Structures are given as C-alpha cells and as structure tokens.
User: Fold this.
Amino acid sequence: METVNAVGRRKAAIARVIVKEGNGTITINKRPLEVYFPSSILQFIVKQPLATLDVIEKYDIKVNLDGGGYKGQAEALRLAIARALVKINADDKATLRAQGFMTRDPRAVERKKPGQPKARKRFQFSKR
Assistant:
C-alpha cells in the first residue's frame, strides 16, 4: 500500500493527514498524539474511526494541524482520518457514515455585524 492523503476541517481548524501502513503511531506537527492532545477525551475522538474499523495498530498517521482550538482540531483530524480510511478501502464508508464520521460539521462562528457589539447582540436601547 502506498501513502494516502486526506484533509478534514472543523470551524477554523484544518487537518492534513498522510496515512501509510505501519504499527499505529500518530504524529501531529512532529509530536506524538499523547503530547499534542494530553486529554484522553480528545485522544478518543481522534482514534474513533480507527477503533470503529479495528485498525488502530495497522496504520501510521502523520498530521499537519493548523488553526482553531483543540476541540475543533481533534474533530477536523477525526474527519481527515475517516476520509483517508475510505480512500484505502471504499467498503468501510457505510460503517463510518453510520457513526457520523464522514460528515463535515458546517457550523462556524457567525461574523460580527457593523453597528453591533457581536454577531446578534445589540447595543442597549435607550428611549431617553
């Protein structure tokens, strides 16, 4: 198997992954997964597609992560890994879609409007 590239996005985060056969190491921005995401919950989110297909020990994953916060980055990485796994074996797509890993979450921060303090909040109205 040759290397497979994929991209995942969530909010302002962008994850670019390179997946190749190996022993299950995940490297994010030249750091191990456990160092980059100390939280076990975020590590779990990242590994969900691999665990669903039971291939955690089968692939080495190199990641370039950029932008957003740590939760958005973890979810962007989950999408990128799921997309890469589908490129490797198209039969897995139905399984990953059923778990919700193939859907790009479109929710993002709404832009601030002029004449208002935030996107929807208004300045206090004063009658007099």
